[in-house]
Write a structure and sequence with these properties.
Helices cover 11% and strands 54% of the residues. By secondary structure, the chain is mainly beta. The strands form two sheets. The chain has a 16-stranded antiparallel barrel. It has a two-stranded antiparallel ribbon with strand order 10-11.
């Protein structure tokens, strides 16, 4: 969507700035899931809970409020679309291709005994007026061991490499995007394809987008060459964005994800009581359903303030057929000052555990499905972040039109309500509840030509 008209120019600046700031931002859940060598996807994937221990609704009151919030989001989205039809004005401008650019980024995560760092390089170049090509190379080096690993194994080190090739095709007000991604590490191979289409209408102040992605995973296990499993993943997405005024832009997004195959982590274990064990308990491999379906809905808004600053907010609700209900809320403030752009934000995440999760089971094979991965438990997380960027403008006749440098620091704190630290010296089932903090550093530079 092109916002370079006089009556919406300030909002265009805000949208571009927010997009650049968020472009390389890894999700909270992805960051602290790299601790195994198996990248567990965003808590949104797969179906099937039969013959397992179900929890009555009155024990999970947050599910009621989750449904209320989802209904409110749907109603608000309908109001958003209707209001868009009323306030939009006509225009002859059309969609535009992404800008030619080159990005280089370094990222580093430290938390829960794990360090993850590495570089990323992005290249994007137009071919004529209707095609744009892109390539991205991303590297993660993981070392250490999280609490899940420390309880049953020793620290390790491995490297994940990810390559993405993409292209955008522009026809008047319609933009078609396609890409292919390969992610490879010692015990995990993932391939995926993505296709998306977006259409500007109502004077280019409204945009609707549809997306689809398909993934194929091959899962292995270090030290066991005979272990080989597969998983297939699909994601469907819908998005609607509306520029209401020169100061306000809002968007609504919905996703449905369906996974099938081997969906658990081969390095995660459940624990169960065993009077014959010196510890009083033993470990066994987790058992997950082989299907999972999930839905996520989000609403976001960016508001441009009179003194050139801006505030932005985002709310995301999620649920799946494994019983997980989650909410994510983010609030941020952008402020320009003498060529610098400062960004401060806070993000809060909370979720209810999967129906088949327990910290301690009574016996081995107690249920058909059993999990103790802390990502399946009930927990909450708070992230506080600060970022600063600076941009240099050059002559339009130069090969390099402009460049920018961006630095961000995030501090994250997680508290688990039903996951205990089994490495602590305490009676079985009375160990202290686990919690940890983490930090993320991102530094990247961009050149536009």
């Amino acid at each position: 969507m092109n916002h370079e008209k006089a009556h919406v120019a300030p909002m265009a600046v805000l949208v571009v700035v927010v997009a650049v700031t968020k472009q390389v931002e890894p999700s909270v859940r992805t960051l602290h899931r790299f601790d195994t060598g198996i990248v567990l996807k965003d808590a949104a994937q797969s179906q099937a809970l039969a013959a397992m221990k179900q929890r009555p609704l009155f024990l999970r009151p947050s599910r009621f409020w989750s449904r209320v919030l989802k209904t409110a989001l749907f109603l608000f989205a309908l109001v958003l679309i209707v209001a868009a039809m009323i306030v939009s004005i006509s225009s002859s401008q059309a969609a535009v291709l992404p800008q030619d650019r080159s990005d280089v980024m370094y990222h580093r995560y430290e938390g829960d005994g794990v360090t993850i760092d590495g570089p990323s390089v992005l290249l994007r170049k137009k071919v004529g007026n209707h095609v744009s090509l892109s390539a991205n190379y991303y590297v993660d080096t993981v070392s250490g061991a999280s609490i899940d690993v420390r309880a049953t194994a020793s620290p390790y080190q491995e490297t994940r490499k990810e390559t993405t090739l993409g292209s955008d095709f522009l026809h008047e007000k319609t933009l078609l995007s396609v890409s292919y991604t390969n992610s490879s590490e010692e015990d995990f191979e993932a391939n995926s394809v993505f296709v998306g289409i977006s259409q500007d209408f109502f004077g280019d102040l409204s945009t609707i987008s549809l997306t689809y992605s398909k993934g194929w995973d091959e899962v292995g296990r270090r030290g066991d060459e005979s272990f080989s499993e597969e998983a297939d993943r699909q994601k469907f997405g819908f998005g609607f964005t509306q520029v209401f005024t020169k100061n306000l832009i809002m968007g609504f997004n919905a996703e449905h994800i369906s996974d099938e195959g081997y969906l658990n982590n081969p390095y995660r274990s459940v624990r169960f009581l065993d009077a014959n064990s010196e510890q009083g308990f033993r470990f066994a491999t987790e058992i997950y359903p082989n299907t999972r379906s999930s839905n996520a809905y989000s609403l976001n808004a960016n508001y441009y303030l009179p003194y050139r600053a801006a505030i932005y907010a985002d709310a995301r609700l999620y649920d799946d057929t494994w019983g997980i209900d989650a909410q994510n809320y983010k609030l941020g403030y952008l402020h320009p000052y003498q060529g610098f752009l400062f960004d401060v934000f806070a993000r809060y995440y909370t979720q209810q555990s999967a129906d088949f999760y327990q910290d301690l089971f009574e016996r081995e094979n107690q249920f058909n499905f059993m999990a103790r991965d802390k990502e399946m438990s009930t927990y909450s997380g708070l992230t506080l972040g600060v970022a600063v960027s600076y941009e240099w403008q050059f002559s339009s006749s130069d090969m390099i039109k402009r460049s920018s440098l961006h630095f961000e620091y995030d501090y994250m704190d997680f508290d688990y309500e039903d996951f205990r630290d089994v490495t602590a010296d305490a009676p079985v089932g009375e160990e202290p509840l686990f919690g940890f903090s983490a930090s993320v550093i991102k530094l990247y530079g961009s050149i536009y030509y």
